[in-house]
């Protein structure tokens, strides 16, 4: 079966398409700092959205995988005037809707809605920045959770691998 054409509405975010791998750092006032590995895959089926899956794992001091960390999946929809909507779900009982904009190869997203199951940890807001820098995908994530305001939580640099 032939690969479908990328929907024209996706042009502002088409640079995300493919598989990305790399490493980053994380921390929060309630946890110790840590190093993690990550893989992200952005796909499409010809419709006006990207599919998104991210997996992370804890790395030891030598860069070896220790155990799985977070995973999330969702959809990225490009809107007119370089606006963007992102819907993400987490197996920890959290669903987020982000809104934002794309400026060249920089994406700035902020939560519009956060919904949690009764067993999910308290989480109230997030902000995500993504940018293509020298061919690599750089991102940073701030979150408001467990009584803290938006605070830096994670960032990474990923290389395109497919």
Automatic annotation (TrEMBL):
What domain of life does the UniProt record list for this protein's source? Bacteria
Q: Which cofactor does it need?
A: heme b
* Record-linked InterPro entries: Calycin, Nb(III)_bact/plant, Nitrobindin, THAP4-like_heme-bd
EC identifiers of the protein: 5.99.-.-
Catalyses: peroxynitrite = nitrate
Where does the THAP4-like heme-binding domain start and stop, copy by copy?
9-160
Which pathway does it serve? Nitrogen metabolism
Q: Which residues bind heme b?
A: 30, 121, 153
The annotation note on the cofactor reads: Binds 1 heme b group per subunit, that coordinates a highly solvent-exposed Fe(III) atom.
Q: Does the keyword Translocase apply?
A: no
Q: Which keywords belong to this entry?
A: Heme, Iron, Isomerase, Metal-binding
Q: Name one Pfam family in it.
A: THAP4_heme-bd
* Span of the annotated motif GXWXGXG: 18-24
- Keyword Iron assigned to the entry: answer is yes
PANTHER family per record = PEROXYNITRITE ISOMERASE THAP4 (PTHR15854:SF4), THAP4 PROTEIN (PTHR15854)
What family is this? Belongs to the nitrobindin family.
What does the comment on domains in this protein's record state?
Answer: Forms a 10-stranded antiparallel beta-barrel structure able to accommodate a hydrophobic ligand in its interior. In fact, this fold hosts the heme group, which is located in a wide surface cleft.
HAMAP family from the entry? Answer: nitrobindin
Described by its record, this protein's role is as follows: Heme-binding protein able to scavenge peroxynitrite and to protect free L-tyrosine against peroxynitrite-mediated nitration, by acting as a peroxynitrite isomerase that converts peroxynitrite to nitrate. Therefore, this protein likely plays a role in peroxynitrite sensing and in the detoxification of reactive nitrogen and oxygen species (RNS and ROS, respectively). Is able to bind nitric oxide (NO) in vitro, but may act as a sensor of peroxynitrite levels in vivo.
Question: What is the protein's name according to its record?
Answer: Peroxynitrite isomerase
Native organism is Nonomuraea ferruginea
* Source organism phylogeny: Bacteria, Bacillati, Actinomycetota, Actinomycetes, Streptosporangiales
